[in-house]
Design a protein that fits this description.
There is one protein chain. The protein is α+β, with helices and mostly antiparallel strands. Helix content is 18%, strand content 34%. The chain contains eleven helices and 39 strands. The chain has an eight-stranded mixed sheet with strand order 32-33-35-34-36-37-38-39, sandwiched between helices. Strands 3, 4, 5, 6 and 7 form a five-stranded antiparallel sheet that branches. A four-stranded antiparallel sheet has the order 8-9-10-11, with no helix packed on it. The radius of gyration is 26 Å and the shape is globular.
Length: 701
């Protein structure tokens, strides 16, 4: 510990971790600089701009001192110990992903509960014993190098797999011989936000590559990717550029190689916009012809048979539809097969000569089957409401797998006979000491500020007596057309087992009710999302489910923005705020890595009207000096190159400076981790125990 750290610790006269008000303490020093700039006629001060260089020695020193300070509050308390013990037990149970089959081989991820990372398993035939195909636990001693995407070749002989170092979005692709286990010499660097799409003859695969960063790989803006083809056995320097457009540096690429044909569909995306352009290549090496050359809807390729190709689309169908494309003699004919309904489509699969569509009905899944010409056939019968996922396979498959879960039911995986529609449990998650019947999840609607009815799931132990003092955790996201659906969560279970209520609000900005729900919470409608979140708390408090003195709010990424903006606008409504890996500087988010891609949801700071809207709620720029804000625990990670940690660094420094009372403003920075994906088991357990333990200690004081 250096002298500066010792000095800061020495100024903490009394730290009572079970209280949100501490009698006396001093925050670690955060250097303040006199910096301002004029943007669209507005003077914008940024006293902690230097923290944007988050890999510098000066920033690392600031992080070390902040982490040391934060540990005085979250390092030890009875709730942390209890949650840690509980999670250690529940985590030590088996977990299994939904299996998928390719050429008679069955693949799935498995964890016995003790491994830091799940292993990729394979069964070489129906009656074969499963074996470990790839073990990410061997990538590093501490589990911080993780497995990213995987792609099996059409003949099931080869596996392309990507590796993430310390949670970064950068991926290195390698190739494994599935039959022999040999790792080939091929190595692909500088891939990001990319799948591996195999050529039909397994001679190589397509991927999306960015230029190697010239400055800082975790901070530099990523634009102008190229769609590349890598031929096995050759160096990456010889990879072929399949498609690029230097005039459109914000376009991204994805390709579907259609089995047993020369047809390829090229999907062209623009940031995080759900809509895409669609091109087709009728002969390998030929020109890509535009099918859809404007952003008029989403187009997702599903499958094909003969000269008919099926797509999921949102063109003139905000809740989604299924369309077919016929290609004959150079002509392209579109036809809507399954038209839009009042319920939004979550997923579509073509299996056993039919179309399986999973609809969302008030956040719950319902699966309908249609013939290939769009005629309704049947509905999958399920006794209870929850979230259903899966149905992988092809048009010739007569069986498939799907999973079922809700907030009080751990995941069950079913094997479904698509001819008889009979199903049997293939695997189910079993937790030590857990009984589903001991818990309840109540689904309701509440009114937001403008009268819109918002869904909310309220989960707790049946034995719990709920009143104004009950600890309440409200979780939300509200953005990017992402739906937060009922699903079993070990972290939420740990809160409920400590006598708390978990409330998940399905805010506007998500996709629970299709594109309209999304549009009502994006761009100039973003304030609706913060109002929805605040009114969730108000509704619960009116029903005597907790109170402002017993409520914590939590969200990550866009949800981190949600928590920060909502608590700044409603400082007396919450006891604890937990913004995680949040987008907190809305005037500069587009300056780092892939942040520019979020302009489709947020708007562009380079546009004056959109800038003014962003400025109205940007957390960093709406902290009021002298206001008493809730006890706040900000979390981020040193290798987060999705939402770079400087968002959290600057927000924490300014909030500490401006806080008008002794409710602590803390920041917890995880090392060797990124935006969340691939975080090893031990880090996850410790993080949950520290965060929830601190929140409960504050609430229950």
């Amino acid at each position: 510990m250096n002298n500066k750290m010792l000095a800061n610790v020495a100024t903490i006269f009394l730290l009572v971790s079970c209280s949100d008000e501490v009698s006396d303490f001093s925050y670690p020093d955060s250097k303040k600089v006199d910096f301002s700039e004029t943007i669209h006629g507005y003077e914008v001060k940024d006293s902690y701009r230097w923290l944007e260089d988050f890999t510098s020695e000066e920033s690392k020193d600031w992080v070390d001192r902040q982490n040391q300070f934060t540990q005085q509050f979250i390092g030890k308390d009875k709730y942390k110990k209890s949650i840690n013990n509980h999670l250690s037990k529940t985590w030590e149970t088996e977990s299994l992903s939904i299996p998928y089959k390719i050429k008679g081989k069955t693949f799935y991820y498995f964890n016995d509960g003790t491994w830091q990372q799940s292993k990729l398993m394979v069964k070489d035939c129906e009656d074969c014993e499963e074996r470990v195909l790839l073990d990410p636990n061997k990538f590093s001693n501490d589990g911080t190098i993780s497995l990213g995407g995987t792609s099996v070749s059409n003949d099931a002989s080869l596996l392309a797999y990507s590796i993430s170092d310390g949670g970064s979005d950068w991926r290195t692709w390698r190739v494994l011989n599935i039959n022999s286990g040999e790792i080939l010499s091929d190595k692909i660097n500088w891939a990001k936000f990319s799948n591996a799409s195999w050529e039909n003859d397994s001679s190589g695969f397509y991927y999306q590559k960015y230029e190697e960063p010239k400055d800082e790989l975790l901070r530099e803006v990523n634009t102008a990717p190229k769609l590349m083809f890598h031929k096995l056995g050759t160096p990456q320097s010889e990879d072929q550029i399949i498609y690029e457009n230097q005039d459109q540096p914000r376009w991204g690429w994805g390709i579907n190689v259609l089995e047993d044909t020369e047809v390829r569909f090229l999907s062209i995306s623009n940031g995080t916009d759900e809509r895409n352009r669609l091109y087709v290549q009728l002969k390998k090496g030929g020109a890509f012809l535009p099918l859809v050359d404007e952003l008029i809807g989403a187009y997702q390729y599903l499958d094909h048979k003969d000269d008919t190709y099926w797509f999921y689309s949102t063109e003139n169908a905000k809740n989604g539809k299924v369309a077919s494309l016929q290609i004959k003699n150079g002509s392209f004919v579109w036809n809507d097969l399954v038209k839009e309904t009042s319920n939004s489509i979550r997923s579509v699969n073509l299996i056993n000569g039919s179309i399986a569509i999973t609809y969302l009905i008030d956040t719950f899944s319902e699966v309908h089957f249609y013939s290939l010409d769009g005629t309704f056939l049947k509905t999958l019968a399920m006794k209870e409401k929850g979230t259903i996922s899966g149905f992988g396979g092809g048009l010739e498959d007569t069986s498939t797998y799907f999973s079922y879960t809700n907030f009080t039911t751990p995941k069950k995986i079913y094997e479904l006979d698509l001819v008889s529609m009979s199903k049997k449990i293939f695997w189910e998650e079993t937790l030590k000491g857990f009984n589903t019947n001991d818990y309840i999840s109540d689904f309701r609607f509440y009114e937001s500020k403008d009268g819109t009815k918002i869904p909310i799931h309220i989960s707790y132990k049946k034995s719990l007596t709920i009143n104004e003092t009950t600890p309440v955790l409200i979780y939300g996201y509200g953005g990017f057309n992402i739906s937060i659906l009922p699903g079993f969560s070990k972290r939420f279970l740990s809160w409920m087992n400590e006598g708390g209520v978990v409330a998940v609000a399905n805010l506007r900005g998500g996709g629970e009710y299709g594109d309209i729900w999304h549009e009502d919470g994006m761009l100039f409608n973003k304030q609706n999302v913060f109002d929805d979140f605040a009114y969730a708390a108000k509704y619960l408090h009116e029903k005597q489910i907790g109170s402002p003195e017993s409520t914590a709010i939590q969200g990550g990424s866009n949800g981190g923005l949600l928590v920060a903006a909502t608590m700044l606008q409603n400082p007396s409504l919450f006891k604890v705020a937990i913004p995680q890996v949040g987008v907190l500087d809305m005037l500069r988010f587009h300056k780092f890595t892939i942040g520019w891609a979020w302009e489709s949801d947020y708007g562009s700071p380079d546009n004056k009207k959109e800038f003014e809207n962003l400025l109205s709620y940007s957390p960093l720029h709406n902290i009021k000096k002298g206001e008493c804000y809730p006890a706040t625990l900000i979390t981020t990670a040193e290798r987060d190159d999705r939402v770079v940690p400087s968002h959290s660094f600057k927000f924490a420094a300014k909030l500490q400076e401006y806080q008008g009372c002794k409710k602590p403003i803390l920041i917890r920075v995880e090392d060797r981790a990124g935006h969340g994906a691939g975080t090893p088991k031990n880090k996850q357990i410790n993080q949950i125990a520290e965060i929830y333990g601190y929140a409960l200690s504050v609430i229950n004081n």
